[in-house]
Write a structure and sequence with these properties.
The protein is α+β, with helices and mostly antiparallel strands. The protein is built from eight helices and 25 strands. The strands form five sheets. Strands 1, 2, 3, 4, 5, 6, 7, 8, 11, 12 and 25 form an eleven-stranded mixed β-sheet that branches. 40% of the residues are buried. It binds adenosine-5'-triphosphate (ATP).
Length: 440
């Protein structure tokens, strides 16, 4: 029989990681005799939901097993979650979903909604009742939403891979010591096949997180072979407890699929909007750059926040009349004012930048200065005075070209498709599993 096991919401800012529980289960379920029919799936959900811990990730394990094993497998899964989830954290509400057989279409559609919008727990419960063998929700049970979405998202379209290495318990919470030279060598050797290993602007490796979770590092790439090669090139001054290759929707823009009109934009939803820049961008306290975007239905502020680094320079070069397509998440302040937090931006059309300047002298061609309001102009070079001259308009050079612009990798969302993935989109799941895809 085919068994899909969805897991979510097991970690807290103080520690834990749902992918780590999945990695433990890879070893335990295989010991029991289950056969994995896919790499563990790491499914990133809507990055704008306010109750996520970090990256809003959920996991699904898909195995084939003897029906006699079903009970034992479920017991091992429940035991792993109960012994490793951070139950003490108020915001941790673990969920486990078991589904047997093929994944029905409505679960796939549900997953799309969880990745691209906001759903309620009741939506998940209705589907679990209609289609699933069983689900276990702890505390406020919110985790069943992500767990069910992970089951439903088969990653049959575009996808990527991540090699995730985990730390031994005694090292967790201590600074991670990776050999930066080995990260550079890996980046060089796998260029085009892995992505977001380094931030070019900040000149620092991005593969290691900084928190207390058990992840030592993760390398993302286009194939299981590539991330295996990359992951095994990294030298660390601490041992790996285990590693697993996940198949994932990271780096695919799976959340950014729907184009909306400005009047339809809802808080916490990802959005794509095309419109016209309505006023000059302004830089506010903290270094954030804001500009209003308008379409025929309304206006919304777009924000390039300080951590997006030089991406803000692109936003600052916009002028009223420019046409852009903005991609990002919608936030709302307490007063209901919405902002689109920019994740990427496509400059579609540049308006001419026309400025008014003092006229040139009709006699000698020199620069003129105003003699006062309505008083005409005087030539600075030959002294000619003329009351009838008017300002002339000049077209300024635009220091911006149409095209797609992204913030630097360090401030990209897990789901954001980086520039180097454009043109590499996949349209089907892999046929088999590359070996080795996990250790031990
Ligand atoms: P990490 O990435 O470190 O594993 P996390 O950022 O994934 O942590 P969770 O602790 O999983 O965060 O919390 C997200 C919670 O929000 C889960 O309970 C999940 O079921 C729920 N959730 C996720 N996406 C949506 C959505 N689109 N609508 C409603 N609830 C959601």
């Amino acid at each position: 029989m085919l068994l899909h096991i969805g897991l979510d919401d097991t970690d807290s800012p103080r520690g834990g990681c749902t992918t780590y529980i999945a990695a433990l289960l890879v070893e335990r379920l295989q010991e029991l005799g289950a056969k994995f029919i896919d790499y563990p799936n790491l499914v990133r959900l809507n990055p704008n939901v306010p109750w996520k811990t970090r990256g809003n990730g959920a996991v699904c394990l898909r195995v084939e097993c003897d029906p006699a094993l079903e009970g034992a497998i479920k017991e091992v899964v429940v035991d792993a979650v109960e012994s490793h989830a951070e139950f003490d954290c108020e915001n941790t509400n673990p969920g486990i979903v078991f589904h047997t057989g093929a994944v029905p279409e409505p679960l796939g559609r549900f997953a799309c909604r969880v990745i691209q919008g906001v759903v309620s727990r009741e939506d998940a419960e209705g589907l679990i009742e209609g289609y699933c063998a069983s689900a276990i929700g702890y505390k406020n049970m919110r985790g069943i939403i992500g767990a069910l979405a992970a089951v439903g998202e088969r990653l049959e379209g575009d996808h990527a891979y991540e090699f995730l290495a985990y730390r031994t318990p005694e090292n967790r919470g201590m600074p991670r010591r990776l050999d930066v030279a080995s990260v550079m060598e890996m980046d060089e050797a796998t260029r085009g096949e892995t992505f977001n290993n380094f931030d070019p602007e900040a000149r620092r490796p991005l593969i290691a997180p900084h928190g207390p979770d058990p992840v030592l590092f993760g390398v993302r790439g286009e194939s299981a072979e590539a991330v295996y090669r990359a992951g095994t090139m990294i030298r660390a001054e601490e041992p790996f407890e285990r590693w697993v290759i996940f198949r994932t929707n990271q780096g695919t823009d799976a959340h950014l699929r729907r184009t909306s009109k400005i009047s339809d934009l809802k808080p916490y939803n990802p959005a794509i909007v095309a419109g016209e820049v309505a006023a000059h961008p302004r830089t506010i306290k903290g270094g954030h750059v804001i500009f209003p975007l308008r379409d025929e239905t309304g206006e919304i502020d777009c924000a390039a926040y300080e951590p997006t680094g030089r991406f803000r320079d692109i936003a600052r070069r916009l002028i009223p009349g420019d046409r852009v397509r903005a991609y990002g998440g919608i936030r709302s302040d307490g007063a209901g004012r919405r902002t689109l937090n920019l994740e990427k931006m496509e400059v579609l059309h540049l308006a001419p930048d026309i400025r008014l300047a003092n006229p040139l002298c009709p006699k000698c061609g020199g620069g003129m200065e105003s003699m006062g309001r309505g008083q005409g102009y005087r030539c600075r070079r030959c002294g000619l005075r003329d009351r009838n001259l008017r300002k002339r308009s000049i077209q300024m050079e635009r220091k911006l070209t149409p095209g797609l612009y992204l913030p630097p990798p360090r401030s990209q969302r897990h789901l954001t498709k980086p520039l180097q993935r454009y043109g590499k989109e996949k349209s089907r799941a892999p046929d088999g599993l590359f070996e080795p895809w996990h250790w031990p």
